[in-house]
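Progress note, project year one: complex with N,N,N-trimethyl-histidine.
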Amino acid sequence: MLKPEIEDGDQGLADPQFRADVLAGFAQAPRAIPARWFYDRRGSELFEAITDLPEYYPTRTERAILEQACPEVATLAGRGRAVVEFGSGSSAKTPILLRAVAPDAYVPIDISGEFLRESSRALSAQFPELLILPFEADFMHPITLPRAIAAVPKLGFFPGSTIGNLTPLMAVDLLRAMRASLGQGAMLLIGMDRIKDEATLVQAYDDAQGVTAAFNLNLLARINRELDATIPLDAFRHRAIWNDDRARIEMHLEALHDIAFTIDGRAFTMAGGETVHTENSHKYGPRDARILLRSGGWTPVAEWTDPDGLFALYLAEAQPVRPAP
Ligand code: AVJ
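Model obtained:
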């Protein structure tokens, strides 16, 4: 279940998947690296700092919605469920849900075992009676949950608009995998960021203090640290653009001039103006969000938003698997 802790340090011992994704990502056109690699220790710290920025409305808005909605969620979901959180990270919003729902068990799932153990420890101090079963896994694929909660109906929790990192195709795959993992009778509480005016969106991903720029550039620093690379960090700038056709914020790292560098002994060149695409953050209007949920096998049962309609929280139930015909 829990893997032993491995120190990355500066000496390498990098995740082979990280190496493969970076080498393939720099070799392809257009260049792109999966956003999940932002979250080393420094990246996770910078993300926490982003969530406090005045321009970054999603975190505080979703928290306020959760405070208001969770008592209703508890009524709609009923007693005696196990809460299963996907990509739990620091579990910062979890206490709001746990206090309202008072579940039988809480299963935080994350790919980072280190983060999981830390946040589970903090939560068990706050909820001493609660059975906490941390689960280190990649939830993009259907997973077999701990046997201790096999017979209990599940309430999935996927806050933060993390689903926005995925293209609609991948988001549907993930929703279907969650439905398979959570089983019959499951419900899902999921946050999605809404489409809004372009200036608000761009500023949320290009803040005045440059914290998001540092978060984006840390990916290059991580590549240098862990993959023995020589990328000149000062030859790049952070870009955040709104792609209206695809309803998403894109983050890129743009080369300021022609450069040459190596990653793990392999030579790369980039021309000035060329970018590495590092993140997508898809936004969903009210109908878009409901169609996405239905496409992934989830029927919306309730939705909540803030007074300005910046962010939305959805409660959905797993579409039953119907026997043929
Ligand atoms: C954690 C994926 C929801 O897309 O808003 C914040 C990540 N990137 N600022 C988002 C992020 C830059 C965030 N998610």
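DSSP finds nine helices and 14 strands in the chain.
The CA atoms of residues 82 and 105 lie 5 Å apart.
No further modelling is planned for this target in the current period.
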